[in-house]
Amino acid sequence: MRLRLMLSLIILMSSQNIVSAELQLSLSLEHAIKQAQNNDPWLSENKHKQDSLDSKAISSGTLPDPRVTLGLANIAADNFDFNQENMTQLKAGISQMLPRGNTLELQTQKFQLLSGQNPYLRDDRKEQVSVTVTSLWLNAFEAKESIRLIETDRELFEQLVEISEASYSTAYGSTQQQDVVRAQLELTRLDDRLTKLKQQQEVSQKQLGQWVSGRFVQHYSMLDASTTAFNDIDTSFLPTLELRRRDLLDMDEQTLVEALTKHPSILGVESLIKASNTEIELAKQKYKPQWGVSASYGYRGNDAAGGNRADLFSIGVSFDLPIFTEKRQDKQVQSAVSEAESVKTKKWMLLREMIAEFESAKVQLQRLNQRNELYQQKLLPQIHEQAEAALTAYTNDEGDFSEVVRARIDVLDAELDKLAIDVERQKIISKLNYFLSIPSNSQIEYIEEEG
Known about the structure:
Distance between the termini: 82 Å
Radius of gyration: 39 Å
Largest sheet: 4 strands, antiparallel
Number of helices: 10
Structural class: alpha+beta
Order of helices and strands: HHHEEHHHHEEHHH
Helix content: 55-70%
Shape: elongated
Strand content: 5-15%
Number of strands: 4
């Protein structure tokens, strides 16, 4: 009876130490996201690409350089006497080609639109980094918290092994050899689960370190040089992520489409569509002739009698005739139109894919909410009640040792399942928030002005 009372006391003390993680906001996750975004070299690369397009927008809207010619024309080949022939002259000329139609304006507009896509891409990239880092951080959190729960229960099972061995060796009570073996087996299984979880934790933290650590990217001027190597995560709390829209679970398809059309990735494709439409107009400019103007001045020497010869001044215009358009201009326009339609198709494919992923994530969240409520209100209380009943029965010589062990394993498994549900809910909320993201403030102002 004394051994049973000791077992009861040990289990009750162990149960008090198993504290489920509270769903509170953790700054460590926010810091990890911010640090990962600051250390992302993709953002730096994209900013350089935008600067390149901005420069092209300026250069492409500028007239081509004028062409200057210098020459000695019509000099006598027999003695190279500059004054011998009337047509001999020292000639200087300048010519300027003019682009077709509105080519300069359209070229500037095209590169501006291509450049305007990049802020949307950076906003989208930051949101993607947030989802990725959140998932990795939560994976590490789940593994570490699971290890804590199992290690707490492992101490209990060590005590169970000792009690069962003591009870069996003294032939006291109803403890049998199979009870000892069962307790030892469960302890070995816990060790195996701990090994797997430590592996998962190490892998997740290494993957997270790829994003958070700034050791290998500090030479980029845009990146945060104050970051340090990633060591561990703070598992004090499981962060609670809030949905960006309260009506998310009740959102109909039309409302969803309206929300997704404001997504940075969709707006980035819209910039490409506008740029491709500009490319069509550029192709149409090739139906117009290209004009050129030229002027030259010819200096002539004195005649054979010493009299002055008049200098010569010439001016003219030139233009081409785009009359053979069937295999050149027509095809260029057709190519530009097809490219524009291709980009439009890309937009609708992306939108359809995002709708499908959003609906899938929404269903997952709804089911996870149902499971969370079931565990919180019914399953966990029932499992704890079962464990207490098994312990009470064993203490009163009305149950066996194996039922106590099985009940404790059920409690641990339920705690781990509840933790997995909580973590998965946060991952799904992070993913749903990605679909409901909007451009940064500067881009919103740009959209309103453009509209």
